[in-house]
């Protein structure tokens, strides 16, 4: 069975409730302090970890609630944008 190429997207683009795997974490944008990548890694945002967005704020720039492992964290959008993920395909019966 052939797999489709992995789709790598920023975490904020993941639809709420969808599962994904972290592919990379880096403070690549100018708004993010250089130590942000290390801080996110310390929270558990490491390549290969399962992640999903559990809630979004009501306003466009509001934080998002993200579940990784057994923890749930509120991330500001510029923090979440430092995390790239690959959405997982739902398992068919």
By DSSP (H or I, 4+ residues per run), the number of helices equals 2
Strand-residue fraction?
25-35%
**Strands in their spatial order, largest beta sheet:** 1-6-2-3-4-5
Report the structural category: mainly beta
Q: What is the CATH level 1 assignment?
A: Mainly Beta
State the share of residues found in helices, binned by percent.
10-25%
Quaternary structure state of the chains depicted:
single chain
For the termini, the CA-CA separation is 16 Å
What does the model show?
The chain contains 2 helices and 6 strands; from the N terminus they run E-E-H-E-E-E-H-E. The protein is mostly beta strands. It has a single domain, classed as Roll (SH3 type barrels). The chain is globular, with a radius of gyration of 13 Å. The N terminus is likely disordered.
Helices and strands in order:
Blueprint lengths: L8 E2 L8 E7 L10 H8 L6 E7 L7 E5 L2 E5 L1 H4 L2 E5 L6
Antiparallel strand pairs: 1-6, 2-3, 2-6, 3-4, 4-5
Which labels suit this protein?
93 residues; mainly beta; SH3 type barrels; disordered N terminus
Short note summarizing the structure:
The chain is built from two helices and six strands. The protein has 93 residues and is mainly beta.
């Amino acid at each position: 069975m052939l797999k489709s190429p992995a789709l790598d997207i920023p975490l904020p683009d993941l639809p709420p409730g969808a599962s994904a795997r972290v592919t990379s974490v880096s403070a690549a944008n100018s708004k993010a302090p250089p130590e942000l990548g290390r801080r996110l890694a310390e929270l558990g945002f490491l390549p290969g970890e399962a992640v999903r967005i559990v809630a979004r704020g009501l306003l466009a720039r509001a934080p998002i609630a993200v579940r990784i492992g057994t923890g749930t964290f509120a991330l500001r959008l510029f923090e979440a944008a430092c995390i790239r993920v690959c959405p997982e395909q739902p398992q068919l019966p």
